[in-house]
Amino acid sequence: MNFFHGCTALITGASSGIGEEFVRQLAPHARSLILVARRRDRLEALTGELDRPGLTIHCHAADLADEVQIEALLAALAASGERVSLLVNNAGLGDHGLFEESEWARVRAMLDVNIQALTRLTHALLPDLVRAGRGAILNVSSIASLLPLPKMAVYAATKAYVTSFSEALRAELRGTGVSVTALCPGPVSTEFGQVADRPNSRDSLPAPEVFKVPVEEVVRAGLAAVEGDRARAIPGWLVCVVMTLTTLVPIFLLRLFLGQRRRGES
């Protein structure tokens, strides 16, 4: 973890799940942590738990689906004088079910958080990283970014954006000292599944236990990929093997497989 010693890290979606675990694993090494999430009480509780001499923790309560709150966050960062050296774009929303039955407000929030907020924060903070000649961006994507997923059509599409954006930006930044990594986890035991499931739906988000990877392992894999300057990380050897093989399957065969799933199946 030498790469992260003395870093200033901004972590979105820091109040729970993967984001909270990023905070926990970075806290022993960082000089400053900037935590962003909607629930300030959780951020403050986490701060009280992890606070130590030599570590400064800033909490920002912000809904990243709201452009005004994003701009207020960026203004507060500029006023603080903090210079972020590690940006962890972790915040994300999901939705599971038929697109035609989705609520537009929920779809719009997914687009705003998963795509717009991630892109805006990266755009705002990247110039300082390039000027410093050293830094990293870790975008939390998903294995859903690697193939179209019925009943998660919008979520998979937003994560496909994240993975593609990360790869392209990484190529642009070659030689600048700034790396970009896409972390593509599979099923993880966090609040995400419960939040993605629709109220009163009996069609819950499928997550086979054999594919689940502990959140601690997911975060370790992401940080190791950043330290090793790797473009992409898929945590869990089984998930990695399955997804690598899946990406080699021609799209017309995938269409045949996906088309066999009846509308009522999970």
How would you portray this structure in words?
The structure is a single chain. The chain is α/β, with parallel strands linked by helices. It has a single domain, classed as NAD(P)-binding Rossmann-like Domain (Rossmann fold, 3-Layer(aba) Sandwich). It is built from nine helices and seven strands; from the N terminus they run βαβαβαβαβαβααβαα. It has a seven-stranded parallel sheet with strand order 3-2-1-4-5-6-7, sandwiched between helices. β4, α4 and β5 form a beta-alpha-beta unit. α1 packs across α7. The radius of gyration is 18 Å and the shape is globular.
Query: Looking at this structure, what is the CATH superfamily?
Result: NAD(P)-binding Rossmann-like Domain
Q: Please estimate the helix content.
A: 40-55%
Describe the main β-sheet briefly.
Answer: 7 strands, parallel
Overall domain count = 1
Structural class: alpha/beta
Query: Could you report the average pLDDT, rounded to the nearest whole number?
Result: 91
Kindly report the spatial arrangement of strands forming the biggest sheet: 3-2-1-4-5-6-7
**Total strand segments:** 7
Tell me the radius of gyration.
Answer: 18 Å
Order of helices and strands: EHEHEHEHEHEHHEHH
* CA-based shape: globular
Q: Catalogue the unreliable spans.
A: none
Distance between the termini: 40 Å
Number of helices: 9
Primary descriptors:
Rossmann fold, seven-stranded parallel β-sheet, 9 helices, 7 strands, globular
